[in-house]
Design brief:
Blueprint lengths: L1 H8 L12 E4 L4 H13 L2 E3 L4 E4 L4 E4 L6 H6 L6 E6 L2 E2 L2 E2 L3 E5 L4 E5 L7 H16 L3
Antiparallel strand pairs: 1-9, 2-5, 3-4, 5-8, 6-7, 8-9
Length: 138
């Protein structure tokens, strides 16, 4: 199955064309946004500078990890959408390349850089990760 999937989608992963394609898990409830973001963070490490987001109530940019659940603040409209990168996610028994995570009010989007880090096993793992996300808010 892994090779069959790769044959179907390899053009979306194998050659870095400079874009950052993304896949949205959409039509989520506020609880779903929160649950998916929590799962992604539990299974990964942050990449780069600590991420920030705009907290509307405080009218300030604050660190994502300075609050209990930044994703729920976005989902309920108390904060603006935010994006950051994660690494170390293991899905389908394989570590995935660095992923971007974009949290919107009813969407969690995963974006990625195309290129040589992706192969059939990584793509199969990525689709398993997407399935895990969808299972948290069917």
């Amino acid at each position: 199955m892994t090779d069959a999937l790769w044959d179907k989608v390899s053009k979306c992963f194998d050659t870095d064309d400079g874009s950052l394609p993304g896949i949205e898990v959409a039509n989520l409830s506020p609880a779903g946004v929160s649950a998916i973001y929590a799962m992604l963070r539990q299974r990964s490490q942050l990449v780069g500078n600590p991420p920030e987001f705009w907290n509307r109530a405080l009218e300030a940019s604050i660190l994502v990890d300075s609050v209990h659940d930044a994703a729920s603040l976005v989902a309920t409209g108390a904060a603006d959408a935010f994006h950051h990168c994660i690494a170390g996610v293991v899905a389908g028994g394989v570590e995935l390349p660095v992923l971007g995570v974009f949290v919107w009010s009813n969407i969690v989007e995963l974006d990625y850089r195309m290129g040589g880090e992706w192969g059939s096993s990584q793509v199969a793992g990525f689709f398993e990760l997407l399935r895990d996300c969808c299972a948290l808010d069917p």
